[in-house]
């Protein structure tokens, strides 16, 4: 069935820009989000992130002493909050593989802005270990959870993750997260042409009427190991067209300026979905995100080749004021806009950092 609206552009005009001003980067973008990678390890081997051929038995992960401690992470987070951060997201690798990560959640959940307002504390997980951990995460103060799930069909799911886990493990994790009230819950799917396109509608059907927001993220050229090609990208427009043909959609206004996901709702009241058009509708002009790698380097873009080391400063006993100055200086000189330059860069790719190290 083809929707009469299939020819529409599904994308409204860009969001109004976030507040500009002091503390903005070189392109006038404020610092608002901090992503923290808490481990470079993962229990899956998804081909677009940690392909088994590269991250096999002989791959050398970071040693424990090289990772930032929870105290060091919290110190950096506190300085970032002073500089404008209002949302922190923990990722990895798979964050639930970091021993006692609930304790870190508790430490970060205790942070607030200068007005005493708690920051938003989120996590992105593959969900495989979630069934046993959801309650503890909720009790520790986690406020939002995103779960990556690229297929419902077990054979497709296992094919994507290197045969590391069954889809039932993730679905149980999602059910438990909902049961303990770890909401709002979002499920993120990356669709690749010829690989899991057939999963778009089953995913939609599964999560409609559940209160869980399903979001489709365009397949990106993160890192240097996933063999990305532009032809492999199923665009957000295409995904929306396919969904709209079966379950008519209408746009929902952004909740705040600079919201990365474009939101849509089912006309029949089945709930919401989102699309993140990171390749075809680059949102660098609104990107307010700083990334802290597992070993304490700050990256100002997901696609950055190099980061600035903070671990040295932390372990040299420097005080908070100096740490804050350093972070502020790194943000101030930031001019990254990789996605906007992507097509030109595709012809002349540069060496990039892997997503498992920097946090997706
Ligand atoms: S490419 Fe870099 S600057 Fe652009 S949106 Fe992504 S992380 Fe932000």
**Sequence of strands across the biggest β-sheet:** 7-8-9-6-5-4-3-2-1-10-11-12
**Structural class of the helix and strand makeup?**
alpha/beta
- Percent range for β-strand residues: 15-25%
Q: Mind telling me the CATH class?
A: Alpha Beta
Give the low-pLDDT segments: 1-8, 12-20
So what's the overall shape? globular
> Over the alpha carbons, how many angstroms does the gyration radius reach?
20 Å
Q: What is the CATH architecture descriptor?
A: Alpha-Beta Barrel
**Number of DSSP-assigned strands:** 12
**Name given to the CATH homologous superfamily:** Aldolase class I
Descriptive labels:
disordered N terminus; 12-stranded mixed sheet; binds iron/sulfur cluster; TIM Barrel; alpha/beta; single chain; 12 strands; 360 residues
Short structural summary:
This protein is an alpha/beta fold.
Polypeptide structure, described:
This protein is α/β, with parallel strands linked by helices. It has a single domain (33-358), classed as TIM Barrel, CATH 3.20.20.70. It has helices at residues 70-82, 101-109, 130-140, 154-160, 167-179, 200-207, 236-246, 311-315, 320-332, 338-347, 355-358, and strands at 33-37, 87-91, 120-125, 144-148, 185-191, 213-218, 249-252, 262-266, 272-276, 289-292, 297-299, 308-309. A hairpin with a 5-residue loop joins strand 8 and strand 9 (272-276). It is globular. The model is unreliable at 1-8 and 12-20 (pLDDT under 50). The protein binds iron/sulfur cluster.
